[in-house]
Amino acid sequence: MMMHDGMGAGSLIWMLLMAALIVIPFWQICQKAGYSGFWSLLVLVPLANIVFVYVLAFSNWPVLRRGQ
Core-most of 4, 11, 21, 22, by most CB within 10 Å? Predict the structure, then answer.
């Protein structure tokens, strides 16, 4: 019998789908706050995601500093 390593194409697709479901809303939040959407990729990094959410929540957003 062959042993399956558990990382098939289906698993990879599932992981990419879940990552997209997490990153896309944060991308929109970052852009609406006046930050680059690329900062939302930090939600995929363990521990950095927690720091990122706190910085996003408690910092002065650039869009509010511009008066928009």
Answer: 22
Residues 6+ apart with CB under 8 A from 33: 56, 61, 62, 63
Measured CA distances, 45 to 4, 40, 49, 66 (Å):
27, 10, 6, 30
- Cα separation, 52 vs 56, in Å, equals 6
Q: What is the pTM of this model?
A: 0.77
Q: Using alpha carbons only, what angle is made at residue 19 by residues 16 and 25, rounded to the nearest 5 degrees?
A: 135
Q: Indicate the domain borders of the chain.
A: 9-65
pLDDT tier at 65, thresholds 50, 70, 90: confident
